[in-house]
Amino acid sequence: MFNKILIANRGEIALRIINTCKEMNIKTVAVYSTADADSLHVKFADEAVCIGPPQSSESYLSIPKIISAAEITNADAIHPGYGFLAENAQFSKICEEHEIKFIGASENMINKMGDKAVAKETMKKAGVPVIPGSEGVIEDFSEAETLSNEMGYPVMLKASAGGGGKGMRAVWNKNDLKKSWDSAKKEALAGFGNDDMYIEKLIEEPRHIEIQVVGDQYGNACHLSERDCSIQRRHQKLVEESPSPFMTDGLRKKMGDAAIKAVKSIQYEGVGTVEFLVDKNRNFYFMEMNTRIQVEHPVTEEVINYDLICEQIKVAAGIKISGKNYTPVLHAIECRINAEDSENNFMPCPGLITNVYKPGGHGIRIDTHVYTGYVIPPYYDSMIAKLITVAQTREEAISKMKRALSEFILEGVKTTIPFHKKLMNHKDFIEGNYTTKFMEENKL
Known about the structure:
With about 450 residues, the chain is α+β, with helices and mostly antiparallel strands. It has helices at about 10-25, 40-45, 65-70, 90-95, 105-115, 115-125, 140-150, 175-190, 250-265, 295-305, 310-315, 395-405, 415-425, 425-430, 440; strands at about 5, 25-35, 45-50, 75-80, 100, 155-160, 170, 195-200, 205-215, 220-235, 235-240, 270-280, 285-290, 330-340, 340, 345-350, 350, 355, 365-370, 375, 385-390, 410. The strands form 6 sheets. An 8-stranded antiparallel β-sheet has the order 13-12-9-10-11-14-21-19, with helices on both faces. Helix 4 (about 90-95) packs antiparallel against helix 5, helix 5 packs across helix 6 and helix 12 (about 395-405) runs antiparallel to helix 13.
């Protein structure tokens, strides 16, 4: 087992990793930018190293600075959390070259699954259902036009190096294709330095359902059932739950088997998520694989009583997994609380938090790094807390969430708590009748 783990991240996920490391008697090193000098992950880690100014490019994305921090503190492993360098193949490779264990996927695995076009081809070869579309990257607009006509509209343009909804455009008819093509390529180039595009058939009335997976160094793999992430805005998830209200036992078996095929096809090591789009007829299609821990991992932890961060660390240390697949025995819902004004187009609202009161009680979990007097910096993602409720049934989990949201006080900045209160009272959400189009079709 590792003696000391450096956490190459910030905020609630850095705290979450520190918590598990303490329980495993592993020392921790926090890295931080000058903007995060007063953050709780800096206070709670055994050691802390300042790695630069607020800009991510000069701190949390600076591989040389993070490696240097690991070397001067004698850390024998690095946990990247999510975001930042978590799926950076070069970072994984450099860690290996410096004999520091990267708690995540290898360079080869990230390369296979990080590029969406390559990942799709890998999954097709493994026999995992994929969305009909181009065979890899499209050469030019003429090819996009030809493929769109062959598949039939609507189609979806996607940036091959994309993520977070950037470089994606739904195209409903041929008259809009050129304009969408040009704007998607421009956005992809600005966001990723790569404007390669591919094209897929647009799945109508889709659910976004992902399967949590774990693979070890010995070829063993298992799945930990599903999460429904269909409530999202501009491809950013807002609420997640497990099990999915759309799921059946038969569909879970098929999707779980497909996810295991995906994992074994690349001999995957670590915790990851295989993401699918599921249409209204319960046909499912591989969308992408995230080779890291995800924001919504607590939902899975709560319904099967399983510490995913602990499992990540164990797998990285060479410990075998049980290989057992899991089915949820409870129901959990997670609301992402962002420092955003949901009444004003979800505009980010950094600033001073003047008062915090966190709800408690049976079946309520809060993962957060904020406290009274904490200043939310304007440089990073606006998520400041995750509120998770777990109960015997979905109805009870929603009821707990309503109560918890009504008691959650975060003053000084605007947050998305008012939005979540409305969502928990929305008839379609209560009935489990929603798709990824929910936010487009409903004004909350």
